[in-house]
TrEMBL record:
<feature type="transmembrane region" description="Helical">
    <location>
        <begin position="200"/>
        <end position="222"/>
    </location>
</feature>
<feature type="transmembrane region" description="Helical">
    <location>
        <begin position="261"/>
        <end position="285"/>
    </location>
</feature>
<protein>
    <submittedName>
        <fullName>sn-glycerol 3-phosphate transport system permease protein</fullName>
    </submittedName>
</protein>
<keyword id="KW-0812">Transmembrane</keyword>
<feature type="transmembrane region" description="Helical">
    <location>
        <begin position="106"/>
        <end position="126"/>
    </location>
</feature>
<keyword id="KW-0472">Membrane</keyword>
<dbReference type="GO" id="GO:0005886">
    <property type="term" value="C:plasma membrane"/>
</dbReference>
<keyword id="KW-1133">Transmembrane helix</keyword>
<feature type="transmembrane region" description="Helical">
    <location>
        <begin position="12"/>
        <end position="30"/>
    </location>
</feature>
<feature type="transmembrane region" description="Helical">
    <location>
        <begin position="154"/>
        <end position="179"/>
    </location>
</feature>
<feature type="domain" description="ABC transmembrane type-1">
    <location>
        <begin position="69"/>
        <end position="279"/>
    </location>
</feature>
<keyword id="KW-0813">Transport</keyword>
<dbReference type="Pfam" id="PF00528">
    <property type="entry name" value="BPD_transp_1"/>
</dbReference>
<dbReference type="InterPro" id="IPR050809">
    <property type="entry name" value="UgpAE/MalFG_permease"/>
</dbReference>
<comment type="similarity">
    <text>Belongs to the binding-protein-dependent transport system permease family.</text>
</comment>
<feature type="transmembrane region" description="Helical">
    <location>
        <begin position="68"/>
        <end position="94"/>
    </location>
</feature>
<dbReference type="InterPro" id="IPR000515">
    <property type="entry name" value="MetI-like"/>
</dbReference>
Length: 292
């Protein structure tokens, strides 16, 4: 056996454990879900049968799906930019020499380590009508109480605020780590040239942070499409599906309505959306990323 062949076999053996896990927990479930979406849901008296694109045609006539899809898009548009911007601002702030800087960093990161169920219960204390913190503060200024989670106009916004509060600290850690690896001589040269803080940020800091921004953006988009835990505690998708998101609708369809075929169809829509967004992010941002 030649040295090249031994090296090739050795490399594939090193990749084998990761490849098995990737196929077993990613590719195979995706293919199995796609095949399930082509069949009807079987019961004891009515076996599953091949329906082709029938389940996908049902999506076009499902008003709940249209509402849930719109909610998911609005939720992503409302949480992803806000969480990234807030994380960057916090990272820039705690990267400076501040009094009790370690405590400030800990305070920003604490929401990230809290369990999702605990976070939902904390914010339920804020949003509960009458006795919640928001209504208590409003009452001191003579404002009437409001059912924040029971109003179709405010419930989705309330979920967005809670999600940004929880995720911004997590993304801040990546930005903070990236800021501490930037070469200080570049900033010293910029200050010697008389560049202001905004020019330094726009021309140096932010371009050098683009690899981190791409990584954070992908994670933020994925997180915005997989919110389930909070909905169990806060709204269960209500009122009138105003806070229902795509992944929760998939869960509801599969485990409350026991329509596994339609749930598989919804899952394929979710996977397609994530694939399009992921490819689009790489194509649009790759030329703006400056790797060192």
């Amino acid at each position: 056996m030649t040295a090249h062949r031994r090296t090739l076999i050795h490399g594939w053996l090193l990749l084998l454990p990761a490849a098995v896990l990737l196929v077993g927990f990613t590719h195979y479930p995706a293919v199995a879900t796609f095949l399930d979406s082509l069949f009807s849901t079987g019961t004891v008296i009515r076996p599953s049968r091949f329906v082709g694109a029938g389940n996908y045609r049902l999506l076009l006539d499902d008003p709940v799906f249209a509402k849930v899809l719109l909610n998911t898009v609005l939720f992503a548009l409302g949480t992803v930019p806000a969480a990234i911007a807030l994380a960057l601002v916090m990272a820039l702030w705690v990267n400076r020499r501040l009094p009790a800087r370690g405590l400030v960093r800990l305070a920003y990161f604490t929401p990230t380590i809290l369990p999702m169920i605990a976070v939902a219960n904390i914010w339920l204390f804020f949003y509960t009508p009458g006795i919640g913190l928001l209504d208590q503060i409003g009452a001191r200024f003579g404002l009437p109480g409001h059912n924040w989670l029971g109003d179709t106009d405010t419930v989705l916004g309330c979920l967005m605020v809670m999600t940004v509060w929880k995720e911004a600290g997590f993304f801040m850690i990546f930005y903070l780590a990236a800021l501490q690896t930037l070469p200080p001589e570049l900033f010293e040269a910029a200050r010697l040239e008389g560049a202001g803080r905004w020019v330094v940020f726009r021309r140096l800091t932010f371009p050098l942070l683009m690899p981190t921004t791409l990584f954070v953006l992908i994670n933020a988009v994925l997180n915005s499409f997989k919110l389930v835990d909070h909905l169990f505690i806060l709204t269960k998708g209500g009122p009138d599906n105003a806070s229902n998101l795509l992944l929760y609708y998939i869960y509801e369809t599969a485990f409350s309505f026991f329509d596994t075929a339609y749930a598989a169809t919804l899952t394929m829509v979710l996977l397609a959306l994530l694939a399009v967004l992921g490819v689009g992010q790489f194509l649009l941002l790759d030329k703006r990323v400056h790797y060192r």
